[in-house]
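Exercise 7 asks you to align residues with tokens for two separate proteins.
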Amino acid sequence: MKNLVLKTFICAGLVGVSLGAFAKGDASNGKNLAATCAGCHGATGNSPTPMFPKLAGLGEKYLYKQLRDIQNVNGKKPKAPSRSIPEMTGLLEGKSDQDLQDLAAYYAEQAIQLAGAKELQVQLNSGMKVDGLKLGAQVYRAGNLKTGVPSCTGCHSPRGLGNAPAGYPRVGGQYAAYIEKQLRAFRLGDRTNDDSMIMREVAAKMSDAEIIAVSNFISGLN
């Protein structure tokens, strides 16, 4: 637990190093480039379906990293992180690094439309069913000391607004189904482009009930 907490505090510095070449993009050019993305992610980065994530307001540095990692899935830079998303296959081919920065700048400027949390019950490993919103709030704000799950607030802020300069994304208002999918992907090791393995180490300690509950709670944060 101590090591994970320490990683959480130093990761901002590591993100800054890994994106040392990052320069602010041109949002106006990014808007033009985003026309081809609107079918899935919406004109302003507010996708109409949980099948695709909301990109609006996630933070320029984070968005740029994800675009870069997705573009690198074909291994052009073998030692660099990559992120495989089948739906994105080929869509970033031919895009320059500046194009990626411009896209990131555009989406970062957009206002997210909140997905919203809902009342639900989740079943613990014991078989007991509990209030999902209450459990989600507990995990997000305080973690789970017994299993070593840290709170989410240290990186993503108490309101889920993230930490844009450090490269931590806004999560508040995102679709619960998308957050749940990513947490499960981190837990399984299917997604590996998190700096210092922070999200993989967090998700590895989370139960199904905690993942479902915290994903739902996050979707209503603002």
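Second protein for Exercise 7:
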Amino acid sequence: MGGSVSQRCINSVRIIANYGSSLGVPMDAMLRSSNIQESWLEHSEIQIDSAQELKVLDNLLSLKGNAFKLGMELGSLYQLTSYGIWGYALLASPSLRKAIDLGLRYLDLTYAFCDIRLEKMDQEARIVFEPKVSGPLADFVLYRDLFAMMVVQKDLFAGAFPEFKVAFISDEPAQSSNLPLQDFKQRYGGDLCFQQEANFVSFSADFLDVALPRGNEITARICEQQCCDLLNAKQVLAGTADRVRQVMLRQGLNTSMERVADEMAMTSRTLHRKLSDEGTSWRK
């Protein structure tokens, strides 16, 4: 399932930047050419374009290399609560099947750069990942997104996830002295396989309908409605209106239309027309 909303919360960049700092990468190097200011990282309400987060990931990969090691370590930092209401909606889902269904329907509320889908093959269920980017970043975002899902599944099952396998199309990466591949099973409880026909996490289909320990139908419905409202708001804000909102967050909510238009390199008259074309206005 692919995403169509390019705007995303800046919280993921904060996780990436802090991880890079732990590796000794200066913050200005992490954010270089992303058009993200370091001060923004303290404001969870700020939305950025997905291309800006990709640039931060690209900076990290260029500086540190080893996509597998970076992806595994970075992905492990995305706790279920890192995703906001989407994470709580999954946590309250009564079964894994319903959690996966909800998670994929609202994937645009996450930080994933992969298309993700659920497949059933005989008695096996597979969650398949396909990177939406190409080039050197493809493996990096794949590893990050997939290992982030490992954290999600541990949270959903309170650490008691059933036996599973993780498969990658790529060749087995070179061993790293501080992150040997054999540590994976100890950390996550699954097996790693390379040179496979697809990138996926597989497990017995019987577990799709096992009750989740924190499942609550009423809470799940409330959270899903909030996910729906949030996704609708993101879609409405796409375009000029969203850009205006971001400039206002930087300049302060008491700024003028003229100042905002100036930063957006247009006249206030043009800004008024663009907002009108989107069915909104400066006042709104």
